[in-house]
Write a structure and sequence with these properties.
65 residues, mainly beta, 3-stranded antiparallel beta sheet, 1 helix, 3 strands, 26% strand, disordered N terminus
Length: 65
């Protein structure tokens, strides 16, 4: 997770620069491999809501509530 000034408890992971040949995002970036850690699905808590981030067989990401 990225640290956020309004929510310091969100973690201490830092974003990295984009690899050579890939365009960098204007905002901090986290690689999906780091989020998923080898799994096909993770749950993400945002406030009082829980979301599901899923990596599909077609190599797409789907975020659902």
């Amino acid at each position: 997770m990225l640290s956020h000034p309004d929510h310091p408890e969100t973690g201490s992971a830092t974003a990295t620069e984009a690899p050579p040949g890939r365009q960098s995002c204007a905002e901090p970036e986290i690689d999906s491999l780091r989020l998923l850690q080898g799994r096909r699905e993770v749950r993400i808590r945002h406030g009082n809501e829980c979301y599901r981030l899923r990596h599909t067989r077609n190599d797409k990401l789907i975020l659902t509530k």
